[in-house]
């Protein structure tokens, strides 16, 4: 496989932000970038699609409209859900950004990062085509605050930039800390920030220690009511984006109660057309072909089959939330949460050789 050197701004800035030597970390153990899906299993499943049921990545997941990817179509499409990486890079300001709002960027890429109990995972767009095509997970096996275990998986086996992306992920293993940070202070400003295919609410708070810190409160929702002047308490993990720090909150509250933070990804409703169980690295996963409300089909990886109590039935209504990935020339939604008959289940994507919490 040939690779070219690619600028991974977001990952690089993370590495620069946490330049902390890790005593005892197994830095010599570097995860393999073997494909997450085995070719035989993947191409067998892909035969489900015919006609216009499946289409390449010139439109948003769940509503593709032709069989041929064309860069000109992609560049002029009114759909911008998957185009952020092509035109804007990993963080920055819009051209019409007002100077008084430059305390944080107008857009950035969080890699759909997830922290669990001594666990961190992150997705990467190695070729800046607007879709993630690699994944890394990190485990703090002994609870010392640092990640000793590292795994890296490629979804797009021929993607340029995999080597550079993998090296940046390896650096994160040595430099990120697993403990949560808790802060409390007065909200000085708020703004809506584009984070890939979502809009997040970001608040700048003046902490009790006299420091200012930007806090990402997740995708904007009607229930989220955080305003200038509020007292905000938040906990999460801090990232460095460009020359700015941001706390990616997992929990937050004001005097009015808890702030609802949902980081499971974009939500799609549809009907299960077909399911198939395949082996992924020793674990049986369920893949589903789901027809969305507009009549288009999408492929969904529903995660390890043993994690779900409810049985999946053809024709059943289902709601899925997750991360859109590019697997060779196909797009797959990597589900993080599914809802059946009003009951929701979070997907456990823990690798079998690890012992921490879910991703």
UniProtKB/TrEMBL annotation:
One Pfam family in the UniProt entry: MamS_MamX
Keyword Signal: yes
Organism from which the protein derives: Stieleria magnilauensis
Family matches, as InterPro entries: MamS_MamX_dom
Ranges of Basic and acidic residues composition bias in the record: 163-178, 338-351
Chain spans, region Disordered: 157-184, 338-359
Keyword Lipoprotein in record: no
Record's signal peptide: 1-27
Magnetosome protein MamS/MamX domain: residues covered: 267-343
Entry keyword set: Signal
Protein name (record): Magnetosome protein MamS/MamX domain-containing protein
């Amino acid at each position: 496989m040939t690779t070219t050197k690619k600028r991974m701004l977001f990952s690089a800035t993370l590495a620069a932000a946490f330049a902390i030597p890790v005593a005892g970390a197994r830095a010599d153990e570097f995860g393999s970038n073997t494909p997450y899906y085995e070719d035989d299993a993947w191409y067998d499943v892909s035969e489900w699609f015919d006609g216009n049921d499946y289409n390449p990545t010139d439109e948003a997941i769940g509503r593709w409209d032709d069989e041929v990817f064309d860069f000109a179509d992609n560049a002029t499409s009114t759909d911008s859900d998957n185009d952020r990486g092509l035109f804007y890079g990993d963080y920055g300001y819009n051209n019409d950004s007002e100077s008084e709002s430059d305390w944080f960027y107008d857009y950035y890429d969080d890699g759909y990062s997830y922290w669990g109990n001594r666990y961190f995972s992150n997705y990467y767009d190695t070729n800046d085509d607007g879709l993630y095509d690699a994944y890394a997970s990190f485990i703090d096996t002994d609870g010392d605050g640092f990640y000793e275990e590292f795994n890296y998986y490629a979804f797009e086996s021929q993607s340029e930039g995999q080597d550079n992306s993998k090296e940046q992920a390896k650096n994160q293993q040595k430099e990120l800390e697993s403990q949560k940070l808790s802060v409390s202070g007065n909200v000085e400003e708020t703004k809506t920030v584009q984070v890939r295919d979502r809009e997040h609410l970001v608040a700048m708070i003046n902490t009790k220690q006299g420091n200012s810190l930007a806090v990402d409160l997740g995708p904007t929702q009607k229930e989220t009511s955080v305003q200038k002047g509020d007292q905000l308490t938040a906990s999460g993990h801090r990232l460095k984006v460009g020359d700015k720090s941001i706390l990616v909150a997992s929990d937050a509250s004001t005097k009015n109660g808890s702030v609802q933070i949902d980081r499971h990804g974009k939500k799609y409703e549809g009907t299960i057309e077909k399911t198939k169980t395949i082996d992924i690295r020793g674990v049986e996963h369920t893949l589903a072909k789901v027809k969305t409300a507009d009549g288009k089909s999408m492929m969904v990886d529903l995660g390890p089959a043993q994690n779900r109590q409810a049985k999946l039935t053809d024709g059943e209504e289902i709601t899925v939330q997750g991360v859109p990935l590019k697997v060779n020339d196909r797009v797959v939604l990597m589900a993080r949460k599914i809802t059946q008959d009003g009951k929701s289940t979070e997907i456990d994507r823990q690798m079998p050789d690890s012992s921490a919490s879910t991703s």
